[in-house]
Design a protein that fits this description.
341 residues; alpha/beta; Udp-n-acetylmuramoylalanyl-d-glutamate--2,6- Diaminopimelate Ligase, Chain: A, domain 1; UDP N-Acetylglucosamine Acyltransferase, domain 1; twelve-stranded mixed beta sheet; ten-stranded parallel beta sheet
């Protein structure tokens, strides 16, 4: 499948600088791209690669000038590139229906144009929407709902009482609706507290591989519209993840903590329970958050503090041994002066 640069520019709403009749057939990274391929330049540090790339065209910000490939100027090159990738991606397979070897309860409701692969199991009372694809090894529990257009990859577990909105993508090994970690300790013995809440995942959420989202103890654990959760993330019971938030790999959110909208938790961030994270907060990698964070600013460190303060702390840390040495020397001088007095 080939398309002209003029057509690609129209697709992404960009301004073409170059020959619009040139044809392209695919996409690649700026270092790997060859003739007939489109690439992108989103990070200024790769600007030097523009001179050596063999790509036919590059998607770049306004003002970028190229002596080699044609340039399609766009406001957001990375987003524009995603549109081009989707355009050249192979078409999806047509719906296969409920395939032989899939176990679907007679009391389950299954929509139109679905594909349910062998060795998946849909319990009684579950509802599967239209245009859903469920791969092998998936379990959908009693009374759970999977909305229209969802894509559920192999070996996902969706326990009972889970409600999933439309166009949700769930990658392999993820478990939604496992019991929250709740115990009452009496005379040294830990007694399990029944976890009778549910999980609500709203539209256009994506959950990476091996994510765990625990059910609420009483109410629901909620992941709101557009949130994106990376691989190996733990979401505990009764957590609220706000709209369009991003949680990166190996982060963990303890029970009953609330995240506002557009929050970003970088890799391996840990949050204690029962705190509130304000809208637009960004937390740096490996940080530990033990109290509420005010909206609209970045934080880093253990415990997490405003990022600028953390940078100052990091600047001082390597100097601490020398500062300690100087302090001890000053203390000796003061002691000597006091002895003379």
């Amino acid at each position: 499948m080939e398309r002209s640069l003029k057509e690609i520019a129209e697709l992404v709403g960009g301004e073409l600088s170059g020959d619009g009749s040139l044809m392209v057939r695919g996409v690649a990274g700026i270092k790997e791209a060859g003739p007939g391929e489109v690439t992108f330049l989103a990070n200024p540090k790769y600007l030097r690669e523009l001179k050596s790339t063999k790509a036919t065209a590059v998607l770049a910000s306004p003002g970028v000038v190229s002596e080699g490939p044609a340039v399609i100027h766009v406001k957001n090159p990375y987003y524009a590139f995603s549109k081009v990738v989707a355009f050249f991606a192979p078409a999806k397979r047509p719906p296969q229906g409920v395939m032989q070897g899939a176990l679907v309860s007679r009391d389950a409701v299954v929509g139109s144009r679905v594909t349910i692969y062998p060795n998946s199991f849909i319990e009684a009372g579950a509802k599967i929407g239209d245009d859903v694809t469920i791969y092998p090894g998936v379990y959908v529990g009693e009374g759970s709902v999977v909305g229209d257009g969802c894509l559920i990859y192999p070996n996902v577990v969706i326990r009972e009482g889970v409600k999933i909105g439309a166009r949700v993508i769930i990658h392999g090994g993820t478990v939604i609706g496992a019991d929250g970690f709740g115990y009452a300790t009496d005379e040294g013995i830990h007694h399990k507290i029944p976890q009778i809440g549910g999980v609500v995942i709203e539209d256009d959420v994506e959950l990476g591989a091996n994510v765990t989202v625990d059910r609420g103890a009483l109410g629901d654990t909620i992941i709101k519209r557009g949130a994106k959760i990376d691989n190996l993330v733990m979401i505990a019971h009764n957590v609220l993840v706000g709209e369009d938030s991003i949680i990166v790999a190996q982060a963990g959110v303890s029970g009953s903590t609330e995240l506002g909208h557009h929050v970003v938790l970088a890799g391996q961030v840990g949050l204690v329970g029962h705190i509130k994270i304000g809208d637009g907060v960004m937390v740096g990698a490996k940080s530990g958050v033990s109290s509420d964070l005010a909206a609209g600013q970045p934080y880093s460190g253990i415990p997490a503090i405003p990022h600028r303060d953390w940078l100052r702390v990091q600047a001082v840390l390597p100097k601490l041994p020398e500062l300690r040495k100087q302090l001890m020397e000053l203390a000796k001088k003061v002691e000597a002066l006091e002895a003379k007095g």
